[in-house]
Write a structure and sequence with these properties.
Keywords: Amino-acid biosynthesis, Aromatic amino acid biosynthesis. Pathway: Metabolic intermediate biosynthesis; chorismate biosynthesis; chorismate from D-erythrose 4-phosphate and phosphoenolpyruvate: step 4/7. This is Shikimate dehydrogenase. The protein is an alpha/beta fold. It folds into two domains: about 130 residues, 3-Layer(aba) Sandwich (Rossmann fold); about 140 residues, Rossmann fold (3-Layer(aba) Sandwich), CATH 3.40.50.720. About 40% of the residues lie in helices and about 20% in strands. It has 13 helices and twelve strands. The strands form two sheets. The chain has a six-stranded mixed sheet, with helices on both faces. It has a six-stranded parallel sheet with strand order 9-8-7-10-11-12, with helices on both faces. Strand 7, helix 6 and strand 8 form a beta-alpha-beta unit. Helix 5 crosses helix 6, helix 5 packs across helix 12 and helix 6 packs parallel to helix 7. The longest helix has 17 residues. The protein is globular, with a radius of gyration of 18 Å. The two termini are about 35 Å apart.
Length: about 280
């Protein structure tokens, strides 16, 4: 069997759990000569790195800060990656490299499996970084067309605003210090937090008024938001759920086979001391 390579690229990547997921997938699929590694790579380094890969490479997972650079280096782009304006997946194609964004799957899969969330109309989004744009596209795909975006720096929300426009989402921009978090959460169908625990800690009990929440932060655990949601008896999806569910689509891009979901889940749970159940859903 021919040796094949894949890797996660970004900076820093020493902490990445992606090798756990994808090497488990390769093993479960009987791809014993395939390997998945970590490669430290800056945003400016994406283009030369990709250009230097040979035919033994089946794909790359791309994390920050290289997701927009990954989109720019691609010869073809999936519709959802175009909507997000960034790519977390690159795979070779007949004409170069194809870009996709399976973070959209990650958000949807996490919300569906952990919260039972399949559709809604109103959302709250905390933070305007790269994960936020993927969340906007994911929420739009299940009918959430009215989103309140709460940010600490309004000047940094332009990419999220552009993404919302592309995705057909009506975005209401709210400065952090002017937000009525309890009211926003209580009137929402879903809340997604992409901000650090230090930002949510003072308002965690207010955010827990949302019937369904995704906290993309998972270390250290539990986060203040996770604790408040559990105490309130609401549904919670986590960043680990998102990581798992985005990896399924990447695995299928890399291997051409259905993702071995149970094996990938088991490997991720073992690597994180079984701290979370990581349901697969239907």
């Amino acid at each position: 069997m021919a040796v094949r390579h894949a890797a996660v690229i970004g900076s820093p990547v020493s902490h990445s759990l992606s090798p756990v997921l994808h090497n488990a997938a390769f093993q479960a699929l009987g791809l014993s000569d395939w390997s998945y590694d970590r490669i430290e790579c800056s945003e400016d380094g994406v283009e030369p790195l990709v250009g230097g890969l040979d035919s033994s490479w089946v794909g790359l997972s791309v994390t920050m800060p290289g997701k927009r650079a990954a989109l720019a280096v691609a010869s073809s782009v999936s519709p959802r990656a175009g909507l997000v304006g960034a790519a977390n997946t690159l795979v070779p194609s007949a004409v170069g490299w194809h870009a996709d964004n399976t973070d959209v799957d990650g958000v949807l899969g996490a919300l569906r499996a952990a919260c039972g969330f399949t559709s809604g109309s109103r959302g709250v989004l905390l933070g305007a970084g790269g994960t936020a744009t993927a969340a906007l596209v994911a929420l739009a795909s299940v009918g959430v067309r009215d989103v309140s975006l709460v940010v600490r720096s309004v000047s940094r929300a332009s990419e999220a605003q552009a993404c919302a426009s592309r995705a057909g989402v009506t975005l209401t921009l709210i400065p952090w210090d002017q937000a009525d978090f309890a009211s926003l959460a209580a009137s929402s169908d879903v809340l997604v937090s992409t901000v650090p625990p230090s930002a949510t800690e003072p308002i965690a009990s207010e955010l827990a008024e949302s019937p369904c929440a995704l906290d993309v932060i998972y270390h250290p655990w539990p986060t203040p938001l996770a604790y408040a949601v559990e105490k309130r008896g609401r549904a919670l999806a986590t960043g680990l759920d998102m990581l798992l569910h985005q990896a399924f689509g990447q695995s299928e891009h890399f291997t051409g086979h259905p993702a071995p979901r149970e094996a990938m889940r088991a490997a991720l749970r073992a690597a994180t001391d079984n701290v979370l159940p990581l349901p697969l859903g239907d």
